[in-house]
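Fold sample X.
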Amino acid sequence: MNNNQGAIIIGAGIAGLAAAIRLAVKGYKVNVFEKNPTAGGKIAQYSSKGYRFDAGPSLFTLPEKIEELFFLAGENTGDHFRYHKLETVCRYFFADGTVIDSFSDPEKFAAEMHHKTGENPENIISYLKKAKALYGFSSEIFIDNSFHKRSNYYTNKAFRKAGLKLWKLDPFFTMHQRNTRSFQSGKTIQLFDRYATYNGSSPYKTPATLKIIAHLEHNLGAYFPEKGMYDIAVQLQKLAERKGVVFHFNTIVEEVLFEGRQVSGVIAGGKPYRATVVVNDSDVATFYSTLMPEKKIPKRVLKGDRSTSAMIFYWGMKNTFSTLKLHNILFSNNYPEEFDHLFQKKTITSDPTIYIFISKKLVVSDAPEGKENWFVMINTPEDTGQDWSYLVRIARENIRNKIKKQLAVDVNDFIETEHVVTPKEIEKNTLSYHGSLYGSSSNSQFAAFMRHPNFSRKHKGLYFAGGSVHPGGGIPLCLASAAIIDKEILSL
């Protein structure tokens, strides 16, 4: 396709980068506008006193979606971007002292669960097989295509089959209900319940359909880039630039322009830029409220629970800790109470689940010798006006006490540098509405259907990518949103 028309991307997050590459390959002259000085969006980095932190997503699955972009551009992924598979995806710590290694190999993981919890290994294997089948059944509908496009329901074979077998999606049980029916051990149930948090939802509300996440992690595997997560953004920006994409950093888009129903460009940095295609990669709620204030915000955008946000402590630790892996979880001893605080009380519990990510375990240059970079995160509600300064003080003490009790480490003895991020900073840095990391949560049977589509029915040439629209949040789904736009533009 040799298309000399212009395309504009609003936001250089992972979906914006992918959309830019795909449109450039199509022959569009692509301009990307990003309010921050660097690309990546939530895939960011932070550095202090010799420590480097991946500041956003830390789990890497479905690497083939990255490889596809290099393939489309006529390049070999390995010449620019390298990664390897993790043998241990995560190490879990429970309040009673139980420590479980979540192996990527299903058989090994099932044996570990049996040894540590008494769970029948067949329960694990059976669950993962069902999750695999569910993914195979649903991925073409819910990940790889737009189910907001009516023609898909009579031209796409997968859509026609799905209409007769919707019960296979397991939408009538919550994730917790399904896990309770699938496993004997409370620890196994809690471990698999955690997958609801991967898109900022509650296992007590989100449909069991989301058990497909377990398939991605255990059947297909989790990976990690050789240079850390931020290298994903670095290499995709470089690939885009090699295809002729022009980036405008520190530049805010102020308005989307139209000629009738057809998009005609944007006003950015006070200047007009013409284009026949505009792709929004910013939070969809923020987009409508700031760039199209005269247009009515679609009801689906603000309907239902917002996803969780996060409080993150970046700690430079002047020691190494052999008990910890790359990814670590210290579970709350009262999971239902934690989610009640997040979604009903809009605050944080005194016993939050703690995630500790230490990229130094694999990227030796990320911290000085003999030291580690701790990314310490707890889930929080969206920002609804809470006193975050107070909550940071309370959370820091609760986190310190929990780590001291479960790991026998007093972090106060080792913290050399600290940086703290709350939902307010997340909203400011990424324009995520109220700091919600994934836009809407999946806390209902119909949440997937309520996500904003990847195209506008009212405005020709206007498209939407990123974690706040279909198919959802997380690196693979953001990349999938760009691929869906690619298909939609191809069908013009």
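Fold sample Y, listed below.
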Amino acid sequence: MPDSIDFPVYLFFINFIFMILSMTGYGRGEAQDGDICYQVEIKSLNSKNTDIRCKLPEGFIQEEILIRQLVKEEVMRGRVEVLVTDLSQGESVATNINESILKVYYNKLKKIALDLEENTESILPALIRNQDIMKGQTASISKAQWNVVYDALKDSIRALSQFRTEEGKVLAKELSQRAFIIDKLIPEIEKFEGERIEKLKERLQRNLEDFIHKDKIDQNRFEQEILFYIEKLDITEEKIRLRQHCKYFEEQINTPDPQSGKVLSFIAQEMGREINTLGAKAQHFELQQIVVQMKDELEKIKEQLANVL
């Protein structure tokens, strides 16, 4: 069994075709129109379902639905965090104070403080932190504001897509390399099959002679039972199916479908089923070592697939 296997990248055309996308990524966009300036940041993480969470400035109640729709069309799957920051407020926040509520609160609290003979200096700083008093934004945003946010959102989505595409290239190479190694280990199994059968026969003969004297063994019946037993331990079908799964796995990496992660995960499960069966039927030390190496490569594939869209 070889210690390592060289991976010919050209064999799988990975340098030419990158179809899979990563679920994790980050994108940031910024747009400005006069005094209006907004920044949009998008971060996507692994998730089986689509979960979009938005953190928006006050006044984006109606626009939040549209933002979610635009983001969902691009990310398709994963946990996504959208952060919209108003960079144009600056010192204007201080003018958005509900003076009538401030005066009512202040006068009532001041009266209570005087009755209790407490210091009144801390009342005003505490009231400024009250959300009812510091309005920060109007009830809705203007069309001009939305246009700026929309441009920033498009730029952030574009940056996120580029990030996920680049990550997908890395994932594609990694997945192809692991599947290639598993496929190239199948001929290594075949090297031990003849020796494996002979050792099985010798072990069965030896075990039988421990219980029955050699002269009393019906050799014809014994040979029939051996053939029947060996047929049950035959691994030809498992090798054929595993090789086919590896081929199909590679084809799916290069499929035009951007959401190929679920299909790849299913194929990996089928690969694991065949590898486990090979291990159960092996009855041979060196062959078991190859199966262990296959399982190790498959585990690495599953780890990477958790991040594929």
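Sample Y note: Strands lie at 25-33, 36-45, 50-55, 78-86.
Also: The chain has three domains: 9-91+140-164, 97-128, 167-305.
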